[in-house]
TrEMBL record:
Pfam families listed in its UniProt record: DDE_Tnp_1_7
PANTHER family hit by this protein: PIGGYBAC TRANSPOSABLE ELEMENT-DERIVED PROTEIN 4
Listed name of the protein: PiggyBac transposable element-derived protein 4
Alphabetized InterPro entries for the sequence: PGBD
Species whose genome carries this gene: Fusarium austroafricanum
Boundaries of every PiggyBac transposable element-derived protein domain copy: 63-360
Length: 381
C-alpha cells in the first residue's frame, strides 16, 4: 500500500473523543443487570437494518519499524529515558532500591545502572514481545547457551542485550515523572492507570488513524496479565488470564479499537455521556434511559459513541445484555445482538424457559426459534 503522510493526532482524537476517566457519579451501579421479567409484549417487531461495511486500513507506513514507532514514537521514548534516569538517581540518593524502601546495599543491582538510550528501549520492547511468543520456564533461560547433548533453542535476540541489562530496564523503566505521583488522593483514579493513560490514549489515536471500523463490532471485558503487587488487579475465574488489570474493549476481528480501564469498587462515572447525547441520538428521554443502566451497561454506550459516526451492529455477551440497553443503543443508531441472563428484563415465559433449561425442561425442541417483541416493538427476545 502506498505510504502517506501521517495526519495530525488531533484529527484522531476529534474522531474518537477519547478519554478514559471522568467525574464522580455516586448513584451508579455495576455488574450485570438484575431486572424483573417483562409482563407484556408487542406484536409488530420493527427490524433495525445495519448495512454491511468491511473495515478499511486507511494508512500504512513503508516499513514495520515505522509502524511500530507510530505507536511508540521517539518523543515518548526520550521522555521515558529522562523519567527513568531521574527515578534511579532519586532511589540511590535516598539509599533505597525501590518504592518499597528496601535499603540500598553494596551488592544492589541498581548500582550497575549506567544510563539508558533510545535504541536500548526499543530493543527491550522488542525482546518483551519476543519473550511473550517464545516461552521458556524462566526468563533467564532465554540467555542459556545450548549444551552438547541437550536439545534446547538458541535465542538470537538475546545477543542484542545482556540479561543483567534487560532485568535492570524491566525493574526501573518509568513512563512517568515520579515526582508528580508521590502523593495520590484516595479519591483519584488509581495511580497505575494514571501513569500509562497518556500512552494508552496515544495508541488509541494511532489506531483511529490506521483503522476505519466496519459495521460489526464487539464489546467485552479483557484482561492484561499482571502478577505483581497491586491492589487494583482483578481476579476473574475461568479466564485464560484470570489475574490482572481488567479493561473494557470495543474491537473488530481481533483489532482493539478503543478501551477503558475497569476500576475495581469505584463510583467513577463514564465520561461525558450523562451530560450530553451523541449527535444523531434520537428521543427526548435518551439521557434518562442512560441513567437507568448500570455502569457495566453504560460502558457499551460510551465505547460505541467513541467510534466514527456510522451505524453499527454491536455484539455482546450476557454480562451487558438487557432490553433497556438494547433500546437505548437503537436510539443511538446501533443495532445489537447478545446472549441474555434470566434476570435481564426479558419476557416472563422466556425467563422461566431459561431457568428450566438447566434441567432440560425448557419446553423448546431442537433448533426451535421463537421471537417475543418488547412492548415498544423495538427489541426482540
Amino acid at each position: 500500500m502506498t505510504s502517506q503522510s501521517v495526519p495530525i493526532e488531533t484529527q484522531a482524537t476529534a474522531a474518537y473523543g477519547d478519554t478514559s476517566f471522568s467525574s464522580q457519579y455516586p448513584a451508579s451501579r455495576s455488574g450485570p443487570p438484575n431486572l424483573p421479567a417483562e409482563e407484556s409484549c408487542g406484536h409488530n417487531f420493527q427490524p433495525f437494518n445495519v448495512p454491511f461495511r468491511k473495515f478499511k486500513i486507511t494508512y500504512l507506513p513503508q516499513t514495520p519499524l515505522e509502524l511500530f514507532q507510530l505507536f511508540i514514537p521517539s518523543s515518548y521514548v526520550y521522555r521515558w529515558i529522562d523519567y527513568t534516569n531521574s527515578w534511579v538517581s532519586h532511589l540511590i540518593e535516598n539509599g533505597v532500591v525501590d518504592n518499597w524502601d528496601r535499603p540500598l546495599e553494596q551488592t544492589s543491582r541498581i548500582l550497575d545502572w549506567d544510563g539508558l538510550s533510545s535504541s536500548q528501549v526499543y530493543i527491550w520492547l522488542g525482546m518483551l514481545i519476543y519473550l511473550g511468543i517464545h516461552r521458556e520456564n524462566a526468563i533467564e533461560d532465554h540467555w542459556n547457551t545450548p549444551r552438547p547433548g541437550v536439545h534446547s533453542p538458541f535465542h538470537l535476540i538475546t545477543k542484542f542485550m545482556p540479561l543483567r541489562k534487560f532485568e535492570l530496564i524491566t525493574c526501573y523503566l518509568r513512563l512517568f515523572d515520579y515526582s508528580k505521583y508521590l502523593h495520590i488522593d484516595l479519591n483519584d483514579i488509581p495511580k497505575v492507570f494514571q501513569v500509562v493513560d497518556e500512552w494508552s490514549n496515544h495508541i488509541q489515536c494511532m489506531s483511529a488513524l490506521l483503522f476505519q471500523p466496519g459495521s460489526s463490532v464487539a464489546v467485552d471485558e479483557c484482561m492484561i496479565r499482571y502478577t505483581g503487587r497491586s491492589k487494583d488487579t482483578t481476579l476473574v475465574r475461568n479466564k485464560p488470564t484470570p489475574l490482572g488489570f481488567k479493561v473494557w474493549v470495543i474491537a473488530q476481528e481481533g483489532f482493539f479499537i478503543n478501551w477503558m480501564w475497569y476500576i475495581k469498587g469505584s463510583q467513577v462515572s463514564l465520561y461525558g455521556v450523562e451530560r450530553q447525547r451523541r449527535k444523531g441520538g434520537k428521543g427526548k428521554n435518551s439521557l434518562d434511559d442512560f441513567e437507568l443502566l448500570s455502569n457495566t451497561q453504560r460502558v457499551v454506550v460510551v465505547l460505541c459513541d467513541r467510534l466514527p459516526i456510522q451505524t453499527y451492529h454491536v455484539f455482546l455477551d450476557n454480562l451487558f445484555s438487557s432490553t433497556a440497553l438494547f433500546a437505548l443503543l437503537r436510539k443511538h443508531s446501533y443495532g445489537a445482538t447478545g446472549t441474555a441472563r434470566p434476570n435481564c428484563g426479558i419476557r416472563k415465559d422466556l425467563q422461566l424457559a431459561k431457568l428450566q433449561d438447566k434441567s432440560g425442561k425448557s419446553g423448546f425442541i431442537f433448533n426451535e426459534f421463537r421471537v417475543i417483541t418488547s412492548p415498544d416493538n423495538l427489541v426482540g427476545s
